[in-house]
Amino acid sequence: MDADRLIERLGELPSLPAVYHRVREAIETPDGSLETVAGLIESDPSMSTRVLRVANSPLYGLATEVDDIRRALTLIGTTATHHLVLSTTLLTVFRDLPLGAVSMRSFWEHGLACGVAARLIARQGGQANPEHAYLAGLLHDIGRLPLYILEPLDMSSALQAHRERQGHLHDLEQQYLGIDHTELGAILLAHWQLPEVFRSAVSDHHAPWRASRSSPETAVVHVADLIVNSLRLGTSGTRWVPVLDDGAWHLTGLDIERLPTILEATITATRDVISAFMEA
Amino acid sequence: MRLAEIQPGMRLAKDVHDPHGQILIRAGVVLGERQIRALRSWGVVEVGIVQDEDTADPAVRDPKAIDEIRRSIDIQFSLSNREHPMIQALHALCLNRALDRS
């Protein structure tokens, strides 16, 4: 399998809708206002519904139920607004495509659970930015989407070998497809012109020891992915718990004794966050 | 259980107190290497450990089913670094969770 050809075919994937790019532009304009952003979101009724539902989910911990887009955006802030619109957009665009061996729902459950866990770890450990950790967690396995969609046969051979415990899935991807989901994921984010900050968490979450580039967010996503895999909250194909990088573990600032709390909170919050994102 | 036999990932059954009755570590905490080192440095020689939560009520548990669960969790962790204290604690938590749900 030729990795370059796979990269060239990324254009066959659905692109992000114009409304996302307009929202981002409005957010990044120096004199842009949440007012403009709210207007854009409200022009898309199904997006408005989803944005409100997610804003009211445990992700943002708002004190009271909010039923107005403007107010919701003001309460959660600019960065979280961008992430919220990006995540609801991605989950809508990649919702009904068949992935073969893994269901799209399970794929997103894994991503959302990882985002929830990453946010909790970032908050507890005090080293990473919780909002960035959340989005990096949600996106960490995004490179598997093109692998499943564009190369279903090779990917199912890799999955079969993984099921037989011949190795970690990312190593088998490399073996069967000549590229793994971390590398392809970072290229996909660039192709979508998403902010640079998420690329290293996506490209290094299985190799956080690439220390020169390793950020606390990358370390947090590495640990969150491992926890969520061990709890089997959804799956992007991985069946076996990955190897923990000791440096990343220390970089998160988390104590082992906090693990039970993190696990419990991840399980509970993930349930609510999934239903906020997934309900029709 | 004697402190020498304590392994990371075990769960405290009783609070550990200092000689003045101050709680050092609360019951229910899963011990990591750091806590074990701390217990050693406090001169604690014996602590109450939650016996395999699965065998707490052998009358209602089928030992075969328990072995099955234990084996499946071991397989799930077989490609990970089991010698790392965090992985040991996570393994113990996942095992307890699987047993609780069975």
TrEMBL record, chain A:
Coiled coil: none annotated. InterPro entries: HD/PDEase_dom, HDIG_dom, HDOD, RNase_Y/CdgJ. SUPFAM superfamilies: HD-domain/PDEase-like (SSF109604). Residues 13-208 form the HDOD domain. It comes from the Bacteria. NCBIfam families: HDIG. This is HDOD domain-containing protein.
Automatic annotation (TrEMBL), chain B:
It comes from the Bacteria. This is Uncharacterized protein. The lineage of its organism: Bacteria, Pseudomonadati, Pseudomonadota, Gammaproteobacteria, Chromatiales.
